[in-house]
Amino acid sequence: MSQPLVLNTVADLRSRLALWRQARQTVALVPTMGALHAGHVSLAKAARGRADRCIVSIFVNPTQFSANEDFGSYPRSFAADCERLGIGGVDAVFAPDAAQMYPAGFCTAISLEGPAKAGLEDRFRPTHFSGVATVVTKLLIQTMPDLAIFGEKDFQQLAVIRRVVRDLDLPVEIPGGPTLREADGLAMSSRNVYLSADERRTAPLLHRVLNEVASQIQGGTRADEALASGRTVIEGGGFVLDYLELRDADTLGTVQAGRPGRLLVAAKLGRTRLIDNIAVSSGGGDWT
Ligand code: PAF
Q: Is 276 a pocket residue for ligand 1 (Cβ < 6 Å)?
């Protein structure tokens, strides 16, 4: 196992990319905020399998956190992250600091409609996706990769980024990587470290409810009834529910006949906000 090369500036990133491009090598990017877990490593391995070179970016992006969120306490574990990525066969880690990404006088941001205004995360984090879209667009322009992989765990984020890439004609493919789960179904997340032992035991309820609601809908129960009973179970389990919704899997708008759906949930358990989602079909009929 060799440690990935660490690049801290856009100039160093571009010099390394130029060498790889001269050798006609393809490049995949995996944008992250660090505190890496097996889910991130699986994205890096998928990237490595689809391109000659793989870069993972690690940057805790201040502009996607609002004032009451956990930017200051977001878990940071750079040395351990690099070690994991070495095992995952990653070639380079791009780890800029805030001054590199947002130099003095920085005043540009991407403003969004479409999936970013679907009334899911944006109802609770109104400035979040503008921060995500701005930093991801910068990372894509800095790296100009052939593909960039994002986890399906942040499903609305994936939809927003795909829309930005289409709208701005960025020449990059955006595959999604499946959500990795703990043995009891809890979706892997860097924020799971915030859960107390009791909360950790309760947390898999979210995934159980998603599965139960999906199987009810696929079995012919009306979606609004299945969702209402799912909401009751989540709230009864000690969560403060932000949303449990059924949406079109592509646009995140209302489900459409003959098109795949997605069930999405966000809920707080103590001080930890958890999100998750799964695919759902209408069970052969129309959505009801
Ligand atoms: O999903 C994340 O870790 C972040 O939102 C991303 C895409 C790296 C942008 O900061």
A: no
